Amino acid sequence: MGRRQARERTLQALYQLEMNPGAGEQVFTEHKSRLEEDVERKEDLAFFHRLMEGVRKHRNRLDPIIQRFLKKDWTLSRLSLVDRMILRMAVYELLFEEEVPFGATLNEAVELAKTFSTEESARFINGVLGNILKNMEEVQGTLSLEEK
Prior knowledge:
Largest sheet: none
Protein name: Transcription antitermination protein NusB
Keywords: RNA-binding, Transcription, Transcription antitermination, Transcription regulation
Family: Belongs to the NusB family.
CATH topology: N-utilizing Substance Protein B Homolog, Chain A
Order of helices and strands: HHHHHHH
Number of strands: 0
Radius of gyration: 15 Å
Helix content: over 70%
Function: Involved in transcription antitermination. Required for transcription of ribosomal RNA (rRNA) genes. Binds specifically to the boxA antiterminator sequence of the ribosomal RNA (rrn) operons.
Pfam families: NusB
């Protein structure tokens, strides 16, 4: 088990929570215990926990960033639920998981889209995240202003 599996479990758990918001702690606990069975490194379980909690905690900060880099006249609600979750996870990683290289985050997001969504979604996610990366300094600056 590695970070890829932690990302897959996070995606699945976030999807479940979006479909059934009242099941919060139950969904988290269920996915965490499945991961604990497979986990070889405690760091991967910690990564799952940070990613899961980080996306939930920072959703209100992540969504406007994603929205800003969507195609003109697109909204987050227009995206498939899976694509929205993948983008939220990736943007969280880009902003808050400093030890994860940007390229790894981008690649993993595209792979998640290929596995759980479509080839077209993978290209779309790659484009959105690529644009965010090109403007990362500005995005991080905006984030810093929000913290003040």
